[in-house]
Amino acid sequence: MANLGPHKIHRIAINTGGGDAPGLNAVIRAVTLCARRRGWEVLGIRHGYGSLLGGEPVMKLNRQAVLGIASQGGTILGTVNRGNPFETYITVPGCKKKRLAADVIVDNFHKLKIDGLIAVGGDGSMRIGHKLMQMGIPIIGVPKTIDNDMACTHRTFGFDTAVQTATEAIDKLHSTAAAHERIMVVEVMGRYSGWIALHSGLSGSCNVILIPEIPFTMQAICDHILNRRKLGRTYSIVCVAEGAHPKGQGMFFKGGKVRGREQRLGGIGEWVASEITKRTGLETRSLVLGHLQRGGSPSTYDRLLALRYGAAAVRLAAEGMWGNMICFNPPSMGHVPIEEVIRDTKKVSVYDDTVLTGREMGICFGD
Predict the structure, then answer these.
(1) Which residue ranges form the domains of the chain, and what is each CATH number?
(2) What is the DSSP code string of 324-342?
(3) Which residues are bridge partners to 59 per DSSP?
């Protein structure tokens, strides 16, 4: 189903799934305006696939509906990051037995006479989209994640804004850390990749950066901090990705499994701070930025990138190239089969130029 060839399109739909990211509304605006100029009707599916599962009705998207939304954070369609339709059974009016949610989605998709779906989401959303495509829903994927860990694309929208937010927070920590001569540990998002920690840590002049791709030892971190003290540097800033972990140990999770959902990463920042105090005797504080990184207006870079993703998705739909995900290969937009995207996530290479830059500047990576 990767290429159905050009065919007459009357109506397309768009949805947003997974965690929110700055730039989602810009994608919705671009898809709507580009599709409407081609004479297509555009429907917005609310809360992931909620509108196709008996939730809020679909939203009719036109120029008025998307007026001024490119600068807004969040998503006017809403989103969800739980309830895999291939693992969930729901009650349908008029049916005695519960039905698989995916089957209901497919049925209602065709009842609405939709010709194709622009699915905006991360790797989880792409996996769901790939399965729905095999059940008869033509899909084009648009990659979305602040973590920048989607395979086959150079940059995802939302990442630049998240890094900017984290960098600004780190900038503010410098003055309070200096005033109290403390060690400050800031934990940032990123799941199993260290892109946010690496970019914000280096931009924010952190002294230690810990990422999942480079397992660390507390000895290396503490030695670095104590050596700075000997040189008269009375405070240090540690930026740690939520998926970072000590050598020989697993990642830190909180809350255990919640109703079958994936475990949530978290707690590494607090643990690192505690270990620094225990091993050095230096006063240490920790801070978790959390969902602050997802909020707010998208940066200029993310706004433009999101608009380009949305426009490229409509062009691909016009060509009948269903089953592909839009990818950004600077300076151009391209596409790649969704099945290739979902095979793996994009990790930071230990030979990445940004890592090498940090090492040459004397930043400790804990190894």
Answers:
(1) 11-156+298-341 (3.40.50.450), 160-294 (3.40.50.460)
(2) EEEEEETTEEEEEEHHHHT
(3) 44
Cα separation, 156 vs 145, whole angstroms: 6
Q: Quickly list H helices, the chain.
A: 24-37, 101-111, 123-134, 159-180, 195-203, 218-230, 268-280, 300-318, 338-341, 353-360
Which run of H or of E encompasses 253? strand 253-254
Question: Which residues does 312 contact at the CB level (< 8 Å), separation at least 6?
Answer: 326, 333, 335
Summarize pLDDT for 30-69 with one digit per residue, the tens: 999 999 999 999 999 999 999 999 888 999 999 999 999 9
Active site members: 147
14 in Cβ contact with 75 (< 8 Å) = no
pTM: predicted TM-score of the whole model, two decimal places:
0.90
Q: What share of the chain is helix, strand, coil (3-state, %, to 5)?
A: 35, 20, 45
